Amino acid sequence: MSEQFNINKLTDHLFRREAGKMSAILIKIFGTENLQLSEDVIQETFINAMRVWSLNGIPDSPSAWLMRAAKNKAIDFIRKNKFSRSIDFSDPERMLLQSEYTLTSTIDKLWNEDEITDDLLRMMFACCHEELSEENQITLMLKILCGFSTAEIAKAFVTSEDTVSKRLYRAKEFFRTKKIKPEFPPASHLKDKTGTVLRTIYLLFNEGYSSTHADKLIRKDLLDQSMYLCNLLCVHSSTQLPETFAAMALMCFHAARINSRIDEHHEIILLQNQDRGKWDRSLIDKGYDYLNKAAFGNEINSYHIEAAIAYEHCISPSFEQTNWKNILRYYDMLAAINPSSIVLLNRLTVIFKVYGAEQTLKEVEQALCNKEWQKNYLYHSLMGDVYACKDFNKAKAFYETAIGMTKSDAEKKLLNKKISQLALKT
Amino acid sequence: MAEYLLLFRGGKGMDRDQSAQEYQEDMQKWVQWMANLSAQGKLGPAQPLKPEGKVVKGTSKLVTDGPFIEGKEMVGGYLVCKADSYDEAVEIAKQCPILESESGIVEVRSIMEMKM
């Protein structure tokens, strides 16, 4: 009984991490047109491991055991299918898989665990192919590199398994018909492509960080996975760009605060009410190291500035002591390189903090992105705050509009709380 | 480009006393040789053969254990390669790692096109 329990506990995490490595290697061997085949091999390896381990106990090195088992399965499959058309043997390296003279040596060479980071990164670049939609990119990354099941992906995106299956099917078809090869982009495109991968990883991170999930475990999992992926970019010499380290720093600063952000009733705790003692200091320090590493080259990226803003919050001993003027300066820089309506809206929030309601309303009057703001519940929520001390009815109306616009229960609860507090003031 | 069959006889592979490391090193040479052919688009099917076998002979289809010829001259494997000429096929054969042993033999045969 307890052995079985141990196995289950061990395998959850282990299987997920090993599945990503196995996929990266298996797909290299079978080709991206055979994603399903590599999934089947992984699945069979895990089922077999559960069976053997529950009989014989957990081996000394479970991950080496799994890798060896998967490798042997791959060899078996190729032996049985060397005349099948399912694998494209016309590739010179794969041609050697057809002969017994060279089969095992070739697999050994492809299965070099010292090159696993390279394989994982090549796969990451393939998953983030520019012709795939962002949601398909994320779905593929979770499936292939993070070992997520379809059900887990569905849970992470609050969508149906059916939708995820369809997305995966489309992505697999794309890989199959286009014969996408997992490879490093040429040096001239490396920066661009790394940027795309970083954006996808950051979207994944935000999916975990945003408050739309009641399920705490899934949220934590998404943060862990996105940081794991970003770390792969940080350790590989060809992707060690300033923006890579800056994005990693930003994620550390955000992740450090995750435990103080949501209370036990899934309600959002505002920054001013968060217990700063719960912030993960070691993660903040780690983020600071990454931020230092990000400070080379002569270009400032939005990740740099966002990380600097997050860091400013992290080092402030209390909400009241936050250096809002510094933060506003960062937002001015951010708005200069990326004047998106979201950035400008965040900047507006800080203007409200630094200069108060009158100045904020003046800025709103002059703003060019009013239309986009109207579509964002955060704007209405902010305007509720701006009017809270001036005009109770207006404030209430803004809050109510915001409630109607957000899908997040946590946000709704928070806005309702603000309305009830308005009533107390009058 | 024509196809040629290379038949391998003798060589280190027949030597049962080879250590694991020697075997590994030997196989690496085969991999290099074949990878080189593959990269030039000249590699066809190739397989090693087990030493035991059966022989079926004549109209009576008599089955005996075989091949009876002495171990060293038994066919131990084959490889089909593409080459522009017989001479080129022979040059390819000369690179075969089996020839690192005095007992190694490569028989080079041109595949005949059957005219109907």
Automatic annotation (TrEMBL), chain A:
It comes from the Bacteria. Residues 123-173 form the RNA polymerase sigma factor 70 region 4 type domain. Residues 15-82 form the RNA polymerase sigma-70 region domain. InterPro entries: DUF6596, RNA_pol_sigma-70_dom, RNA_pol_sigma70_r2, RNA_pol_sigma70_r4_t2, RNA_pol_sigma_r2, RNA_pol_sigma_r3/r4-like, WH-like_DNA-bd_sf. Residues 195-295 form the DUF6596 domain. It holds the Pfam family DUF6596. PANTHER family: BLL6612 PROTEIN, BLL6612 PROTEIN-RELATED. This is Sigma-70 family RNA polymerase sigma factor. The lineage of its organism: Bacteria, Pseudomonadati, Bacteroidota, Chitinophagia, Chitinophagales.
Automatic annotation (TrEMBL), chain B:
Coiled coil: none annotated. Residues 15-115 form the YCII-related domain. InterPro entries: Dimeric_a/b-barrel, YCII. Gene3D superfamilies: Dimeric alpha+beta barrel. Belongs to the YciI family. This is YciI family protein.
